Amino acid sequence: MSDRRWRSPCARAARISTETICPIPLFPEEELLRLATTSPAAKREQLVREALAPYLSLADLRRLAAKGEELHAALTGLEPLPEAVRALLTLLSLLLAPSHEESIRQPADIAALLMLKLGHLDHEEFWLVCLDTKNHVQRLLPLYKGSLNSSVVRVAEVFRLPMALNSAAIIVAHSHPSGSQEASPEDIKVTKALVKAGHLLQIEVLDHLIIARGSWLSMCDQRLGW
Description:
This protein is an alpha+beta fold. It contains seven helices and five strands. Strands 2-1-3-4-5 form a five-stranded mixed β-sheet, with helices on both faces.
């Protein structure tokens, strides 16, 4: 990110050609004041989306984030591009990439990233997170697509990569495109099978997260399958 000082978008207007277009601020002062005092959450979200829409394809942003690809590819190409938009994408890319030194100490530590990858899907996906002895993320990857049931989720396949990586623990997660956080009997059955196999293989299953639209559930916290 540039170390230049922040300046008004029009600060250089007197020194440039009159044909140069001065970018419009994303959030005019009067709009910020109105947001801070009277707007409900839904209205605030709508105004943020409208401000970003000319510069950033939100549909492309979600698609790229779900695939772990370069988020800057979601830019529309419209110029001049506000520095705030570039800074936002840079920050998102930095925050959402799991660090090799980052320890997963509670479900919330990994749930935010999984929500970004799974929360917007219109189908079920099952993901695996491999952790070392210090709970550092070794690998994060999708294993299955489609309805989650015990005939599809094969225990041996789930543990194949953790065994190859000599993982100490795993976290599994799957999406609920219906928006419900409630664990189904099949979800609990799959979880019990994984926990049992983990005990035998000495690879602890720390949690099974259900990722819905804008929310998530820790099955371990609810003692569903443990």
